[in-house]
Each structure stands twice: as C-alpha cells, then as structure tokens.
Amino acid sequence: MSQFTFSSESVSEGHPDKVCDYISDSVLDACFEQDPRSRVACETLVKSDHVVLAGEITTNAKLDFDKIVRQAVKEIGYTDATEPFCDTTLKLVSLITSQSNEISQGVTATTSQSGDQGAGDQGIMFGYASDESDELMPLPIVLAHKLTFGLAQDRKKGHVDFLRPDSKSQVSVAYDGNTPKGVTCVVVSTQHTPAADQKRITEYVREDLGPRVLGQWWNKDAQLFVNPTGSFIHGGPSADAGVTGRKIIVDSYGGWGRHGGGAFSGKDPSKVDRSSAYFCRYVARQVIGAGLAKKAEVQVAYAIGMAKPVSVKVDTFGTGDDDKAAKYVMDSFDFRPRAIIETLDLLRPIYRQTTNYGHFGRPGLPWETPVAVAAK
Fold it and tell me: What is the number of domains present in the chain?
C-alpha cells in the first residue's frame, strides 16, 4: 500500500506488566553489581498486595530480594499505603532456584559441545532500523513512548497533581510510501486521583502534554481520546495482575518490525532472546548508517548450546540491495553469543534503564551507538 495508517502503543512504568519487568531487571542488575558472571532468568508476577518472584539464578552475589523489590516499587511510584499495592506493605513470595546444569553446560565455553559459549536457548531474534526518525525507529512507537514518558515525568516532577503511575498511549501515523505524513489519532489513558475528571485530564493532554512532548508531530486536528471509559481511578497491580515479558511489542518496534517472541527483561545476556535482539538492532542501525538501505531488518536463529547461529538474514524491504547488505553484515559482525557480549559490553548492571519506554531508540544504550546516517 502506498498510503496507509499505522498505530503503535506504549505503556508506562506503572503498568502492572512493566512493574514486573522493572522488578526482574532490578534483580538482574543487583546480581551484576556483585558478580558479572551471574546467570539470571527472573520472572515476576504482581497482583493486589503480592509480588511473586520465580525463576533460575546462579550467582555469587548476596541478594536481599525483599529490599530489591520494595525499592523498585518505590521508584515507580506505588507508595500510597491506602492502596493494596504499596512498597511498604506488599508481601513477597520467592520461588527462585539455580540454573539447570544441562543448560549451563551448553552455555559455558569449557563444557559446551561447540567449544565456545553457546546460545542459552534455541530461538529467532530480529532487529530493525529505519531512517524515518532521528531515533532510526518507526515513528508511531517513538511518539507513543514520548507520551507515556511525559506522563511519568509530569507525575514525578509534580507538574500536575492528579496523575498516578499506571498509563497507556497509542499513536496512529499516516504514511505515503515510506514517509510519515502526520498523526491522525492519539489515545491516552492515565490513572488519576478521584478529584480529577475526564474534562480536566483531556485539557491537560490537548493543551499541554501533547504539544510539548510531540512537538512538530502534534496535530490539533487529529482524533484525541483521553480515558475513553470516562475514568481511570483504580489501576496498577492493585486492580490488575502483571507478569514479566507481556509487553514485547511495546519493548521493541511497536508492531512494525517483526519479533521472535522472546521477552527481554530479567534475562542475563547469555540468553540470546535478549542479547542477540539487541545485537540485531545494533547491526540494522549500521546498515542504515552505511547507506545500504533506508529500512533494514536482521534476523538470526540459534540452536541451544551452539555458538554460531544456524541462519542470518537481512531484508531491506526494497530500499536497498539485500545481497550487498547481507554481505556487509556477514563480513562485519560476529553473531556468536560471546562476541555479542564483548562487542556491546553486556556483563554489567545496565538493564534497569532499558525496562521502560522501549529497549530501542533511546540514547546511551550500547546497541544504540550513534551512526552517521546517509543523506535521504
């Protein structure tokens, strides 16, 4: 289709699933702060006044799970003791065991059948980049994240007094070919105090938040839906259950680029679900920066315990020469897990900063190394 509209959504750090992601990544970082060789697969479930930790962790770190969880919840903003879910009153259940020896022997270089650090699981991973935005990301997910991040910042800075941690956004962008032309619809749903009504919150989004955070892309004539049910007082884990890894499209490309299905949060980089997805994004950015395409997607697949991928594919969607781009990728980048970890320096506590508002398109992350993009 030469003309179409594409929509993407974002959720805030206070969304129940994102609360779980942040707790899981907080546990991962706590492990890496003491032991960079930690093996971590941490899952979290939240509901009402309970937090359940589950998964497999093998580490020399001394962990205080209770302290880690409560600090993460406090940082998100669930500090109201009158609500069921609160940092000071929540109840923690821990169901953590060590990593399976059979997985470990395939991942560890000295025991793997490949003689190198093997992939922590089989699977497929994708990375995507496009020159349609400064972030080299699809524009709809960039704008959706700007809205939820803006809501969080306004709440934490006291810019408005009625916002609460749980919120979502959705942005629809009209395209002509590969070129975004304008925003056609914005949806914002935000938890709020009982004192704020829909009219007040809508005015805040229309007159303040939207124009400020979307800048040139704010369209005062676009459809705008704010808290479309009428109110959103009860939210977060007090109202809804959350689980780690349920927002994989929000975490990646907003539905535009393909996704292999593996979640990111709570996993150390021996899990290629995370590290290889990051590396594929890194490589796709380099393809764009090298002027080989305007859009690029990189797919890689692994067998558990094996170091070399079983396949690597590059697609430029008609904006470049696929064969030339693929040769560049295969000649320039090493997709073995150990090489990925070394290239991106992943054995360090950097993961809490990735949890919210997208794992891609944000400066300061090692797979988002600046590239000089060829002129359009």
Answer: 2
Q: What local confidence, expressed as pLDDT, does residue 109 receive?
A: 58
Write out the DSSP string of 256-312: SS---S---TTB-TTSHHHHHHHHHHHHHHHHHHTTS-SEEEEEEEE-BT-SS-SEE
Catalytic pick among 247, 281, 352, 359: 247
Select which of 6, 9, 13, 17 is catalytic. Answer: 17
Q: Which of 155, 259, 267, 294 is catalytic?
A: 267
The verdict on whether 29 is a catalytic residue reads no
User: Chain centroid to CA 349: how far?
Assistant: 16
**What does the alpha-carbon distance between residue 253 and residue 243 come to, in Å, rounded to a whole number?**
20
pTM above 0.90, yes or no: yes
Q: Whole-angstrom Cα distance, residue 201 to residue 292?
A: 45
Same domain as 24, residue 80:
yes
CATH number of the domain within which 98 lies: 3.30.300.10
The amino acid that residue 81 corresponds to is A
pLDDT of 374 strictly over 70:
no
Q: How far is 223 from 241, CA to CA, in rounded Å?
A: 30
